[in-house]
Design brief:
By secondary structure, the chain is of the alpha/beta class. It has helices spanning 2-35, 55-72, 94-105, 140-156, 160-176, 188-217, and strands at residues 46-48, 76-81, 116-121, 126-131, 228-235, 243-250, 257-264, 291-296. Among the domains are: 46-181, Diaminopimelate Epimerase, Chain A, domain 1; 217-265, N-terminal domain of TfIIb (Single Sheet), CATH 2.20.25. Helix 2 (55-72) links the parallel strand 1 (46-48) and strand 2 (76-81).
Length: 297
């Protein structure tokens, strides 16, 4: 009888121990989930998790991307990380990491799939410009040129902030001249219909991009295209207030030169809202099928 009671007691203890382990697991599992996966989209335009960018470059890029999304309807995001290995994902390359992160964040318009993501993995010495599926392969070569000409030379000198700033400007300039193209359908007749409709859509988007670039870079004094534009942060923005900056336009052809103040949008926290006054859109949700370009240094 005593042996039986002892046996029952041991069973109860074992079951109690199992329940305790299960309870602890349930408590710890949410914390593990929060620590795993892709980095959060904490800012709509610039997420410097590697801490390699200057506050001036961050503010300049954020303003440039916000202006471009407002005027051309294209969202561009810049991200810096230490390594893709810092995140609990199945990705083994910066290409896979960028594609999956792009789709996780839903960058760009969900109908046009026109977003762009710039990823710099400092410790991996890798850079990737991922483009939305709406561009097809049309942007692969241009983005490769952006990486090779504007970003890698600076990265090799460990000038990450200036390299990202130069690459960001080159991306915007490149996108201003080109619009997403229609994708091929699964059948010939559907492709023809999509092609006809895509011709009108693409023409309209291309016109928006060209108008933005021409308007910004045409000299009002001599009407020559080629005005150089630079921006400098005067007062950095915060999560509670906007900042101010100075925009300089200079024409090498005739010497035209102007300086004007502009408002820098306050920092954006995507966890609290799906849109913002600095260019957020309820049509976010764009995807990528792996188009773009990569580089290493």
């Amino acid at each position: 009888m005593l042996q039986r009671c002892g046996g029952i007691g041991s069973v109860v203890i074992r079951r109690g121990y199992a329940l305790l382990v299960l309870a602890l697991g349930m408590l710890l599992f949410p914390a593990y989930c929060l620590a795993s996966g892709y980095p959060p989209d904490s800012d709509r335009y610039v997420n410097d998790y590697a801490g390699v960018m200057t506050s001036n470059d961050v503010a300049t890029i954020r303003t440039m991307f916000a202006d471009f999304e407002r005027d051309a309807g294209v969202r561009v995001v810049a991200l810096t990380i230490g390594s893709i290995k810092d995140y609990d994902t199945p990705d083994t390359s910066i290409e896979a990491f960028s594609t999956n992160l792009f789709n996780t964040w839903g960058i760009g318009d969900r109908q046009k799939n026109n977003g762009v993501l710039i990823v710099v993995a400092k410790n991996d010495r890798k850079v990737r410009i991922e483009v939305g599926s709406g561009y097809g392969k049309a942007m692969d070569a241009p983005m490769q040129s952006v990486i090779n000409e504007f970003m890698l030379p600076a990265f090799k000198r460990e000038q990450y902030s200036s390299g990202i700033a130069a690459g960001a400007r080159a991306v915007v300039d490149t996108l201003s001249r080109r619009a997403p193209v229609a994708q091929q359908g699964s059948s010939s007749w559907l492709f023809v219909l999509l092609g006809i409709g895509g011709l009108f859509v693409t023409s309209g988007m291309a016109m928006i991009g060209r108008n933005y670039y021409v308007r910004e870079h045409t000299c009002p004094q001599c009407s020559q295209l080629g005005v150089k534009i630079s921006r400098e942060t005067v007062v950095a923005p915060t999560y509670s207030s906007s900042g101010t900056g100075q925009k300089t336009r200079h024409c090498a052809s005739c010497g035209y030169h102007t300086e004007s103040a502009y408002t820098i949008s306050q920092l954006y926290d995507s966890s609290s809202s799906s849109s913002s006054s600095d260019g957020g859109s309820s049509s976010d949700g764009g995807g990528s099928s792996g188009g773009g370009a990569s580089g290493s240094w």
